[in-house]
Write a structure and sequence with these properties.
heterodimer, A: 3 domains, 7-stranded mixed beta sheet, two-stranded antiparallel ribbon, 65% helix, B: alpha+beta, SH3 type barrels, 6-stranded antiparallel beta sheet, 6 strands, 46% strand
């Protein structure tokens, strides 16, 4: 059987010609020397059955793009009786280079100048005889689209194929050896000095998928993997955060306190309790964000993220979200800030906004500190774990309710179609670069906002200047008592209201602020709170703290990620309303039941 | 090869093969499907389905794709009787 190679530049109508010649008999198959599948068809040409192979379109026979290497390797490993070279007539002045390159191979070749209809309209005319004699190969003019000249061209092709003998693949290998040498050298240099992500073979990917996407095992494995990542981020993050806190404390005590010792008290307070604490709040997030993005980059670039989305999509679709939202939501249980930044993988804005709206309800590790303290103060050691668990359930409930309520407004028009890439190992460089990018992004966008917020809260709890800080006589205390008509129905008194104002900045400082407010700390503070609050009030306070707003850093991130003040404001307002509603129902319900 | 009356992609069972014979989608989705290799005449395999009527995992050539049933229902296929 004869073998015919169909070659040409991209977008010259090569495949149109292939379809016209081959009819419906095309099949896809493997060829010696190359790893990609090529389309071929059996055709009848000049009394012979011949196999016509559609090679990838190339610009340069001696080039080094993937397609160009495929074509070269095909020629070096397969006996070829005829080359049909397709070029665009209108652009023949630029495309003739490929014709000359193919001629030098010495294979029997016919040049088919396609799209003559278009060329004629552009006033391009070709002297077939002259071109043919100078090139040393027959030239045919065709329109593959309309079929003009195709019959004659194929007759000419049959004559060319039968008339000439053709060089062997070995012969072509000799001709193309300079290119092969460059390929080899390229590969060697790249292998020894360039890092590329390693990609697993399709078979291995399919095998791993059989386990990781298993109908029953898939989800448990996903949760297991997530739990492990979570543990890693926060186990490794804790000592780093402690380190940052230690450095900040050391600088404050060792450098800034002595420096400002003679400054007026208000300046001392503004700079240290305001600005410096604000910077400290930002700095405390940095280790977590670095770790989170190191891990997320690894997960994202490994190809697992789209598989996690596949596994969880059934549930999330009913909430108007998709599988990727779920991954971010769970990450939010560590820290809301990087989880919000992680929503960038979503292209559809409504989907992204809805996800950003629900992430702040994830019970993050900072809120957990408050709850652990309160649960220990107000409940027995037997009750405390159940209290914590109920708060986690509440966190999920707030997420689901919010998603269900707003999925109508934030309806995603994005079809859920994701490519599952083969599994890959990202390079360390890729991971580090991404981690650094995200941190610098966070620092640039959030610092000003957070520092301003911390200074404001400092001012509220320290002015007017002649009263005890954080007492009922400060502005914060006045706001607390002004809000009492709102807060009394949910069991929160003026002093706890001040703690909530602190909590607006960061949950990490809520317990610290209670220490300032009550003038006690540690065990005595716990005992005092146990005397002053009953468990219903405590639980109501915890529910409110869980839902009302995560922290200033989260709000700053919401604003920078959504680029919308209205959305940020809405998110904060909705969480306040929901928090008040939940606490109100709980507090009044419990009181009505006689607790 | 015997072509049976057409169904949509969502009706395929895991491990079954088919040929795409029509795509009924708006321009946006059509474009996206095209870019991923969905074309009339292409061979397609349903690799697996997620639990609880979740998404489908399909393979076109060497490309693996997950899509929801609502999107899969827009793709007409003809079963390839083995």
């Amino acid at each position: 059987m004869k073998r015919i190679a169909l070659m040409g530049m991209p977008n010259t109508g090569k495949s149109t010609l292939f379809n016209r010649i081959s009819g419906a008999s095309a099949r896809v198959g493997n060829w010696p020397g190359i790893t990609v599948d090529l389309t071929s068809a059996r055709i009848l040409l000049g009394g012979h059955i011949a196999e016509l192979i559609d090679l990838p379109g190339i610009y340069d026979l001696h080039g080094f793009s993937d397609d160009e290497q495929v074509v070269r390797h095909f020629l070096e490993h397969n006996d070829i009786d005829l080359v049909i070279l397709v070029l665009n007539t209108s652009q023949i002045d630029r495309q003739l280079s490929l014709g000359l390159q193919v001629r030098d191979l010495g294979l029997p070749t016919i040049l088919m100048l396609n799209m003559v209809d278009e060329a004629r309209r552009h006033g391009v005319s070709v002297d077939q005889q002259s071109m043919s004699s100078q090139l040393g190969m027959p030239v045919a003019m065709i329109s593959a689209k309309y079929g003009d000249g195709c019959k004659e061209a194929l007759q000419l092709a049959a004559q060319t194929m039968n008339r000439e003998s053709h060089p062997t693949p070995e012969h072509l290998r000799d001709r193309l050896s300079p290119d092969d040498r460059i390929e080899q050298e390229m590969e060697q240099i790249v292998r020894s000095s360039v890092q590329m992500p390693m990609e697993l073979t399709d078979q291995l990917t399919a095998k791993i998928d059989r386990i990781l996407l298993h109908p029953w095992l898939g989800l448990p494995l996903f949760f297991g993997a997530l739990y492990a990542l979570f543990q890693f981020i926060f186990t490794a993050g804790k000592p780093l955060q402690d380190g940052v806190a230690w450095i900040l404390g050391y600088l404050r005590g060792g450098v800034f306190e002595p420096m400002l010792a003679t400054a007026p008290p208000w300046l001392h307070g503004l700079l240290l309790d305001g600005v410096y604490n604000g910077v400290g709040t930002v700095a405390a997030f940095v280790p977590l964000i670095i770790l989170f993005f190191l891990v997320m980059t690894m997960v994202e670039d490994s190809g697992y993220l789209s598989r996690a989305a596949y596994l969880t999509d059934a549930l999330m679709a009913r909430l108007g979200l998709d599988g990727r939202s779920f991954v971010m939501l769970l990450m939010g249980f560590g820290c809301n800030v990087p989880a919000l930044m992680g929503t960038r993988v979503m292209r559809s804005r409504p989907l992204r906004l809805l996800t950003m709206l629900v992430i702040p309800f994830s019970l993050c590790s900072a809120r957990l500190q408050v709850f652990v303290f309160m649960a220990a103060a107000l409940f027995t050691p037997q009750q405390a774990p159940a209290v914590l668990f109920s708060l986690y359930l509440m966190s999920f409930a707030a997420t689901f309710v919010t998603a269900l309520l707003f999925k109508g407004q934030l309806r995603s028009d994005e079809p859920f179609i994701l490519e599952l890439p083969p599994y890959r190992f990202p390079t360390p460089h890729q991971i580090l670069q991404r981690g650094w990018l995200e941190v610098s992004h966070f620092l640039r966008r959030a610092t000003k906002f957070i520092v301003a917020g911390v200074v404001l809260v400092w001012a509220l709890t320290n002015f007017p200047g002649d009263v005890p800080p954080a007492s009922a006589y400060t502005f914060a205390g006045m706001i607390g008592s002004a809000l009492s008509p709102l807060l009394t129905p949910i069991g929160i008194d003026g002093q706890l209201a001040i703690a909530l104002i602190f909590g607006f900045v960061a949950k990490e400082i809520v317990i610290g602020s209670l220490a300032v407010i009550y003038g006690l700390s540690g065990d005595p503070l716990m005992q005092l709170m146990a005397c002053k609050l009953d468990w219903v009030q405590g639980m109501s306070f915890m529910l409110f703290t869980l839902i009302y707003t995560p922290c200033l850093s989260t709000i700053a991130t919401l604003k920078s990620e959504s680029r919308s003040n209205a959305f940020t404001l809405f998110s904060v307002a909705w969480s306040l309303i929901l928090a008040w509603g939940v606490s109100f129902i709980f507090y009044q319900g419990a009181r009505a039941l006689g607790y | 090869m015997l072509l049976m009356p057409s169904h949509d992609l969502a009706s395929l069972k895991p491990g079954e093969h088919a040929t795409i014979c029509g795509i009924h989608a708006d321009e946006n989705l059509h474009h996206r499907l095209n870019a991923l290799g969905f074309r009339v005449g292409k061979h397609i395999e349903l690799v697996r389905r997620a639990r609880f009527s979740g998404p489908l995992h399909v393979r076109i050539g060497s490309t693996d794709i997950v899509m929801r049933q609502s999107e899969a229902a827009r793709i007409q296929i003809s079963h390839r009787a083995a």
